[in-house]
Amino acid sequence: MKILPGLLLPFCGVLLISCSIKVTEDNNPTFTKTDSLTDRYLAYQDSILRSWNIMINDDNQKIKSMHNLLHELIVTGDNERERLEKFEEQLDQLERTRYTQRSMANADVIEEYDFATTTLVQELISLAESKTEFAYNTTLQKLVDDIRTADQRVDGYREEYDAVVTRFNRFLETYHVDLAGITSNDSLKKKPLFREVSVE
């Protein structure tokens, strides 16, 4: 059979396009629903961890400033050393009893930590401001300001954390069945929110 020259070019063109499509399809991996859910799940976990770490690091910095303030007060007030050392012990205890992502499900844990923190902050600031040297001691002034400012940031950080966790919990509700094949059941439990466990 003889192929006419005029028909040869279109035929070759179709062949090349067909081959090109085949190569393109083979080079692009197929993303399944499972892949997409896994990516979203991991992204949520990263966001939660990042928000939590920012909040806890800020709390750590506040506690560090409280330790530094105590040190300054001990240096300037020998007659109150015993009282100030008691505060130091309470601060150390504070770090050990702070809530975790799991323990915060118990409202008592947060309430006790917040009460202990607020009491210490108020007592230390009050003590520092009562000192005669506070009026001219810029170190004391800065530490008090740092502690007070960090204390005011707590609610904001908790709201940001709650916002991320709320989105994650909704995601779990919507895709719980699909996610069961991706991760363990423990990882599919909804996380507690500050606003749900906080005591008014």
Structure description:
The chain is mainly α and 200 residues long. The chain has 6 helices and no strands.
Q: Which terms would index this structure?
A:
0% strand, 200 residues
What is this structure, in a nutshell?
This protein is mainly α. It has six helices and no strands.
**How large is the count of helical segments?**
6
The coarse silhouette is elongated
Biggest pleated-sheet summary: none
Query: Total strand count, please?
Result: 0
Query: Which class best fits the helix and strand makeup?
Result: mainly alpha
Overall mean pLDDT: 83
SSE string: HHHHHH
Helix content: over 70%
Beta-strand content estimate: under 5%
- Ranges where pLDDT stays below 50 over 5 or more residues in a row are 7-31
Radius of gyration, in Å, reads: 30 Å
Q: What is the rounded distance between the termini?
A: 92 Å
What is the element layout, followed by pairings?
Blueprint: H1 5-27, H2 33-76, H3 81-97, H4 107-130, H5 138-179, H6 194-197
